[in-house]
Amino acid sequence: MKRLQSWPRWSFWTWCCTLLMAGGAGAYYLRTVHALGPTAHLRDVFPWGVEVGLSVLCGLALCAGGFAVAATVRILKLENYESIVRPCLLIGFLGYLVAFVGFITDAGQPYRIGLLITWNPRLVLAGAVWSLILYGAVLALEFAPELYKRLGWREPPPLRWLGMPLLLLAVVLSVLHQTSMADLLLGTPNKISALWFTPQLPFLFFVSAACAAIAAVIFASWHTSIAFARGLPANLVAGMGKALAALLFFYLGLRFADSISRGIPLLVQKNDLQSVLFGLEIGLFFMPLWLLITERDPVNPRVVYYSAVMVLAALITNRLNTCITSVEATTGARYLPSWNEFLIAYGVIALGVAVFSLTAKRLPVFLES
User: Is 287 exposed, middle or buried (0-12, 13-18, 19+ CB in 10 A)?
Assistant: First the structure.
């Protein structure tokens, strides 16, 4: 009985993250032992499956959006929204970390990871490691004053002026990473449905990434305020809800204008899986816009939270539709993910959630406005 009582009293979500990370680690071990083919249902038609869609594409979206929103607040000197800079930077860093780990696990060749740390201009993935170091440096500089204060040290002067140049460089690199993934999709015009294949795909990816970053901050603030009594004030959440509504209106306007210019009907009347998932994607983007616009002022924090959840679900649906559903509709092939792919994808995401929770518990991620 004493041994049972000595077990840590974790919450339900802590156990979920732990089990998902353990399952992901076990699935990745099987991936490295049995290679990619027997453990993933990928073929030449589907080079990107649910693992890449969930971890890499969504992680890069949070990375680009998080750093872009943080830089916008700093450049425009929006002092009332200074409190969201740290969570945006942390979400951006963890988004890229999730994308990086997801890409490494998708390759299934862990013995090549050591080659990535070397500076080899012929090795494209080496730049990913140095980008991760840059994002980590930006995050470390942001939390440096708090760490120096706890240690009783005086902050060195160079740390004050290094923050903005590194942040701008991080924005450029994160946007380039996001754009490069969209360009890779545009390089296969015969495999992507016209509903998602558009020359404006890189810009649409970026705008949706900015929406997802704001939604992720609202989502994280809601749960950290419940778990650790640390979150953003209600008036700041209401302001972020208005900014999210404006970005969603801009995104949907771009999406519809692009569809009309290419002669794509806005209402697809076919009763097939492609049309249903396309309607689900547009609905998940439109519903939070409708909720935020029709809500009375000040905006209810619960309504903003539900809107943020739908925006995050819309981002996931959009990325999976772009790399899986559109390919199925064009080629006629069918892709059914294996349990190994699901475990690795959700294990990587659980790792990012766990790191964010530990950081929010130990460090002042959400500052008072």
Answer: middle
